[in-house]
């Protein structure tokens, strides 16, 4: 399913405030970001930005979520799902492991990550195999088909045989008995300090001066003498290699003999260790295809466990996916406002174009987004806060939010019109179009005319039209049969109750009903938002006169009491200034 960036932001799948990483606004992405592993988070990204439109693949995801949900309802933290989730938390990053090994980076952290992956993926395989429910679910079955447990156990055995993870938790060393030459080099290196001490004592006695013997990798064994000492008369074969401000480093025949006998012991140890590690690396990379594929499969398991946990917490249900382009659900709730949102029954079947009207603040835009989010959730494989049928959708197209930019030379309405154009040109009979208040940014005649033409265009298409929901305040389009539609459209409104007292109050029911709303109650909404009372009063008078077909020219040109007071004060100030003798000052 194709969902462009405009739609993702308009539906609050991702944050509409582009680039604001610290935004506290709730989005569907944040709601779903409860995965347990790095690969789970990466897979969730893939699910979000690449929804499915293949009904069989979607149903397999739903079936897997249903299986997981059945185990979650047992309410046992130690059941298979809880154990798998704990193992996913400690899963090593296989992408990083493989890429670093190919580069020859064999740092201790890479081996530790590899061990974590092998241990925890093997545990997950065992948990799945031990569960009659899980081993038959699609996503778990694919993992067990990919993951070769015998190969993983063999690799894990090799790691624990070759490498010591216990002695020093900060590093990884080669176990004794793995490489006989390496063991000999290590024994020599461990005895080296006492050997050097013995040799230094012997040479000190011969030359009657205090000396030290040092081993420096790649330089070998050296005699260290104080800079004030004079050894040239003692033994001609002493060759100075370098000096510091306090000491001189010499190489003599005795040191050369030690070089030949012991060798560059540290470098020999490192070379032997590298030989062992590279042999082990080759074994690992022979299984890289299996490791990467099973790792990706674990990412899917992680995401579907997250979907199941969300569905369990908020009583989401499994949608019935159908090939027909319909949206027919009951008890439909907004996925982002589950605790306090009122449910609705929404049906788009034979009448593929639905027009939704109602007062300001009555929940029209919220219901529009709700339909889009539920369609989106169903196509990524999650359960939804609704019960019913959802048709396979190839695109979600929106004209909801206007994304303005200083870098684009276009007006607000031009941006809206471009979004509307994309909706009409890219849609198919299997698409979902969501239109919110199109036409409000232009002339009072052009806006309704354009919207009416768009609705009629979609109506002309009949069953070839995309499923469309249009939210509008242009109720004059539908009054007095000004426009006729060749195919029926579904006229709906958001219900409300009006208290006809002096201080007219409106109770919003947030329930969808049949027919067109007669009023928008914009003045009431403005009053609730704190607009000054005199402005509200004047607006009310004008509205009443419009309804009574009274000529507004005299009223609009009439000066209000407040304006008269301001003019009187201004006139008084001007007269005072004119009386001043400015020349004398």
UniProtKB/TrEMBL annotation:
GO terms classed as biological process: chiasma assembly; mismatch repair
Annotated Gene Ontology cellular component terms: nucleus
A molecular function (GO) term: ATP-dependent DNA damage sensor activity
Coiled-coil annotated residue ranges, if any: 182-209
Occurrences of domain DNA mismatch repair proteins mutS family (ranges): 431-447
Keyword field contains Kinase: no
Gene3D superfamilies from the UniProt entry: 1.10.1420.10, P-loop containing nucleotide triphosphate hydrolases (3.40.50.300)
InterPro entries registered for this protein in UniProt: DNA_mismatch_repair_Msh2, DNA_mismatch_repair_MutS_C, DNA_mismatch_repair_MutS_core, DNA_mismatch_repair_MutS_sf, MutS, P-loop_NTPase
Keyword set, alphabetical order: ATP-binding, Coiled coil, DNA-binding, Nucleotide-binding
Acyltransferase keyword on record: no
UniProt record similarity statement: Belongs to the DNA mismatch repair MutS family.
Name this polypeptide is given: DNA mismatch repair proteins mutS family domain-containing protein
Lineage, opening ranks: Eukaryota, Fungi, Dikarya, Ascomycota, Saccharomycotina
């Amino acid at each position: 399913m194709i969902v462009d960036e405009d739609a993702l932001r308009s539906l609050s799948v991702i944050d509409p405030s582009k680039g604001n990483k610290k935004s506290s606004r709730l989005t569907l992405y944040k709601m779903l970001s409860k995965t347990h592993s790095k690969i789970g988070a990466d897979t969730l990204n893939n699910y979000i930005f690449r929804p499915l439109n293949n009904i069989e693949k979607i149903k397999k995801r739903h079936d897997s979520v249903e299986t997981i949900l059945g185990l979650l309802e047992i309410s046992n933290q130690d059941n298979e799902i809880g154990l798998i989730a704990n193992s996913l938390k400690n899963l090593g990053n296989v992408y990083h492991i493989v890429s670093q090994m190919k580069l020859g980076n064999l740092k201790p952290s890479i081996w530790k990550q590899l061990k974590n992956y092998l241990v925890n993926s093997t545990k997950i395989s065992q948990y799945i195999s031990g569960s009659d429910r899980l081993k038959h679910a699609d996503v778990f079955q694919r993992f067990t088909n990919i993951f070769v447990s015998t190969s993983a156990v063999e690799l894990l055995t090799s790691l624990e045989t070759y490498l010591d993870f216990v002695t020093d938790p900060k590093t990884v060393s080669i176990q004794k008995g793995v490489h006989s030459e390496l063991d000999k080099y290590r024994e020599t290196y461990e005895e080296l300090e006492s050997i050097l001490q013995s040799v230094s004592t012997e040479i000190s006695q011969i030359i009657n001066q205090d000396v030290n013997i040092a081993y420096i990798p790649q330089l070998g064994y050296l005699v260290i003498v104080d800079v004030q000492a004079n050894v040239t008369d003692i033994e001609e074969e002493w060759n100075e290699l370098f000096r510091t401000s306090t000491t001189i480093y010499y190489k003599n025949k005795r040191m050369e003999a030690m070089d030949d006998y012991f060798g560059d012991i540290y470098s020999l140890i490192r070379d032997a260790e590298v030989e062992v590690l590279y042999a082990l690396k080759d074994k690992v990379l022979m299984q890289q295809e299996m490791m990467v594929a099973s790792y990706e499969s674990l990412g899917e398991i992680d995401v579907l466990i997250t979907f199941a946990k969300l569905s369990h917490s908020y009583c989401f249900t499994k949608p019935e996916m159908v090939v027909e382009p319909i949206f027919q659900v009951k008890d439909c709730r907004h996925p982002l406002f589950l605790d306090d949102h009122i449910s609705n029954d929404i049906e788009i079947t034979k009448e593929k174009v639905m027009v939704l009207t109602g007062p300001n603040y009555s929940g029209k835009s919220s219901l529009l987004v709700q339909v889009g989010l539920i369609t989106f959730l169903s196509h990524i494989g999650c359960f939804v806060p609704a019960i019913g049928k959802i048709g396979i959708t190839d695109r979600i197209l929106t004209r909801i939010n206007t994304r303005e930019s200083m870098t684009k030379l276009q007006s607000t309405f031009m941006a809206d019109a471009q979004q509307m154009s994309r909706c009409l040109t890219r849609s198919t009979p299997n698409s979902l179009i969501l239109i919110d208040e199109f036409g409000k940014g232009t002339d009072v005649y052009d806006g309704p005319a354009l919207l009416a033409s768009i609705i009629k265009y979609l109506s002309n298409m009949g069953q070839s039209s995309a499923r469309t929901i249009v939210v509008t305040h242009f109720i004059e389009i539908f009054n007095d049969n000004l426009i006729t539609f060749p195919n029926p459209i579904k006229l709906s409104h958001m219900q409300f109750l009006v208290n006809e007292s002096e201080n007219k109050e409106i109770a919003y029911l947030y329930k969808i009903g049949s027919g067109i709303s007669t009023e928008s109650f914009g003045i009431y909404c403005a009053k609730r938002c704190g607009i000054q009372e005199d402005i509200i009063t004047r607006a009310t008078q004008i509205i009443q006169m419009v309804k009574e077909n009274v000529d507004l020219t005299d009223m609009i040109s009439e000066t209000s009491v407040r304006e008269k007071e301001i003019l009187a004060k201004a006139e008084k100030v001007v007269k005072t200034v004119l009386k001043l003798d400015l020349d004398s000052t």
